């Protein structure tokens, strides 16, 4: 008898309280039949992770990463135990495991560990015994048996990596939205749910601000070609399939629009226009552990130039202080910061073979009197940094202009 | 250089909130010097364990033991991580470990596991590196890597077992009271703190309701002769030393009085007075995992007898249901339950060589119009089951009668 294996991941909002855990437990047992096996990955209950982090920060402004992982990993351990307990109450056999127990081995980069290998033995044994297997998301263990976590959104990665390790037929990501939308339905009420989206498009959308799935997990799904079904844990409705290719989509150039308000901009004015200066600036910034996104260097007519770059808002304070130090050292001018920016991006695999899309985007923004401060492009996306106050207006205009209302 | 090794255990009330964790962290670093090593065992924060249990019981009236251990063990994991984080904030190096990580191997009796071995390697390595080692109490791991817990109060056992495994010089149990008292000071305000108490006396007191330390941990301390210092985490005052023998105590017959309200009584009426009937009853009760304490079979003048026994209140419902089933099967009469009982006990090693103590106890109770429902004795204790409403009165009277106010 051939068995189908389904990996399901339920996010924090799907298990935010005991009633929701019970609802999810019912959903899981409804899926479990004699013909298939189910592995369930759960996130921590609702805001548990934030609460634990807040406690640690009250005790220590700079808590050690290893201890943070020890602390934060408990959230998922609690939810997976409760889920197994809820499933057992429905008369089905379930067993919960920590990341360590199912052999999710990671490197030693605490708080942002990378999975190296997954030992599937214990999981397979439990499945063979007919058990529904519940695994704590977001965590693993080093070869030295220290608990690690995979970074925010890491439960998605756990699910996808398990789907690969166990050779699952499908990986379902349950969340509080019905799937992937052309843009954020809270901004544009005409936003449409996509039936399918490619890994590349999803990856761009996740990187550019769509918060439905963690970017790293999509990379892994893409690398191993694991189809992902993103759907709501509150309805039976089909969600969005994330797949390798979607032939039907050839003609549609723009598939989605994202808006990311989590960045801030730093500008170093009057930077001496000499070789090696940019390298010096960004080496110093990377040394303090801040990742820089877009960098723009203005065309210089004099011996000086302005260099602008974006950093995560949470890192602005330290990045700004470092930028000021560098500016002094390299004899540059003033250093400016701007928290009030948004990154608006249009995404679509079809953009590769279509021309004029960028022009259309810039034209639409211009017509709406939205000034473009910075521009970056990838093979399948174009992003503009604009004033945050205008971002909703810009998203609405672009959504309409690229006909996403009629997808 | 010879190092002293101190094992300290802090109970739930000592780490009930972040302020208390910080206070304990300060206390720990004050004890840590170049000359000694410290291993700290922590319980879960305040009521965490109760809260987790309540969640599980809402999902499942009879939650599976393995999953309960998975759930409940997180409480201690959280507190030990927070303690390490708090100590690091004071500039000292600390590292936290789960029971599994320091190799506390137990049998497979989930929710009441027994420690088999403790692998001291990882702890010793961390101590050799000058770190303060924080270990999650109350938990271990089976050889199959399943998380187990040691039963309520299990953190005491963790501390004592670690003191033995690491060959510690002393084991300090920090709690919210200043030591061991002649009786519960909340009931008798004249209760006195004892300077020393023997393992045997402490064992009786713990078994009979004194909640300062878990009985099993005292057994282990006794077996390996590990001196224990029970003291308050809120003051520097010396507490009570639990030791093997205390010569000075020879003349004092009664050292403490306990009152335990956690039991309930079941009576099976008109049990046919045939060989094997009692065995049948208590075999069935033990099969459902309920431990019976006192058993009394009334003297029988007919062919029928009444059998009464006490069980933990939490197990009353299932024990009562089972008792009713057995009663039908063996053709006994009515089955009665009584939640309103208390066990009053007097304890003292000196009782071995003193006569008339039991008589004095019964006389005192009679004078106070307290009816005795059941009696049990051990070599160093006498217990009476009485009406719970009269228990405070009984404790006060006995405390006075045995001159414990002037210890």
Task: Provide a descriptive summary of the structure in words.
- 2 copies of one chain form a homodimer.
- In chain A, strand 11 and strand 12 form a beta hairpin.
- Chain A starts with a strand and ends in a 6-residue tail after the last helix.
- The first copy, chain A, is globular, with a radius of gyration of 23 Å.
- Chain A contains 11 helices and 20 strands.
- An 8-stranded mixed beta sheet of chain A has the order 3-6-2-1-9-11-12-10, with helices on both faces. In chain A, strands 13-18-20-19 form a 4-stranded antiparallel beta sheet, with helices on both faces.
- The first copy, chain A, is 34% helix and 26% strand.
- With 407 residues, the first copy, chain A, is an alpha/beta fold.
- The first copy, chain A, has 2 domains: 173 residues, Carbamate kinase, CATH 3.40.1160; 162 residues, VC0802-like (2-Layer Sandwich), CATH 3.30.2130.
- At the A-B interface, helix 1, helix 2, helix 3 and strand 3 of A face helix 1, helix 2 and helix 3 of B.
- Rg measurement of chain A, Å: 23 Å
CATH topology of the largest domain in chain A: Carbamate kinase
Report the sheet with the most strands of chain A, covering strand number, pairing sense and barrel closure: 8 strands, mixed
What fraction, in percent, of the residue positions of chain A are helical?
25-40%
Order of strands, widest sheet of chain A:
3-6-2-1-9-11-12-10
Q: Note the overall shape of chain A.
A: globular
Number of helices of chain A: 11
> Oligomeric form of this entry?
homodimer
Instruction: Give the mean pLDDT of chain A.
Output: 91
Number of strands of chain A: 20
Strand fraction of chain A: 25-35%
Name of the CATH homologous superfamily of the largest domain in chain A: Acetylglutamate kinase-like
Structural class of chain A, by secondary structure, is alpha/beta
Just give the CATH class of the largest domain in chain A.
Alpha Beta
């Amino acid at each position: 008898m051939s068995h189908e294996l389904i990996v399901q991941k339920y996010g924090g909002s799907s298990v935010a309280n005991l009633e929701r855990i019970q609802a999810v437990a019912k959903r899981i047992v409804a899926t479990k039949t004699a013909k298939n096996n189910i592995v369930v990955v759960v996130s921590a209950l609702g805001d548990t992770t934030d609460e634990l982090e807040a406690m640690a920060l009250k005790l220590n402004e700079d808590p050690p990463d290893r201890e943070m992982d020890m602390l934060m990993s408990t959230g998922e351990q609690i939810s997976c135990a409760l889920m197994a307990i809820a499933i057992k109450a429905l008369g089905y056999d379930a067993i919960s495991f920590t990341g360590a127990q199912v052999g999710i081995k990671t490197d030693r980069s605490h708080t942002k560990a990378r999975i190296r290998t997954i030992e599937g033995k214990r999981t397979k044994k439990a499945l063979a015994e007919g058990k529904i297997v519940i695994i704590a998301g977001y965590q693993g263990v080093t070869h030295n048996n220290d608990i690690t976590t995979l970074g925010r959104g890491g439960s998605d990665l756990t699910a996808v990596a398990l789907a690969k390790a166990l050779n699952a037929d499908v990986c379902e990501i349950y969340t509080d939205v019905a799937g992937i939308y052309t843009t954020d339905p809270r901004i544009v009420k005409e936003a449409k749910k996509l039936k399918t989206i490619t890994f590349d498009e999803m990856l761009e959308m996740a990187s550019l601000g769509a918060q439905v799935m963690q970017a790293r997990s999509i990379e892994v799904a893409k690398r191993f070609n694991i189809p992902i079904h993103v759907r709501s844990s509150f309805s039976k409705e089909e969600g969005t399939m994330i797949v390798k290719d979607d032939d039907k989509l050839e003609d549609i150039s723009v598939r989605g629009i994202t808006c990311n308000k989590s960045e801030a901009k730093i500008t170093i004015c009057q930077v001496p226009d000499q070789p090696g200066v940019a390298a010096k600036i960004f080496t110093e910034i990377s040394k303090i552990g801040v990742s820089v996104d877009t960098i723009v260097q203005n065309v210089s007519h004099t011996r000086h130039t302005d260099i602008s770059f974006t950093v995560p808002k949470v890192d602005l304070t330290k990045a700004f202080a470092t930028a000021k130090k560098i500016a002094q050292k390299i004899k540059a001018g003033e250093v400016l910061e701007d928290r009030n920016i948004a990154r608006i991006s249009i995404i679509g695999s079809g953009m590769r073979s279509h021309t004029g899309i960028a022009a259309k985007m810039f034209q639409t923004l211009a017509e709406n009197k939205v000034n473009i401060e910075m521009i970056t492009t990838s093979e399948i996306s174009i992003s503009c940094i604009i004033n945050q106050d205008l971002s909703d207006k810009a998203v609405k205009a672009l959504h309409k202009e690229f006909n996403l209302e009629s997808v």
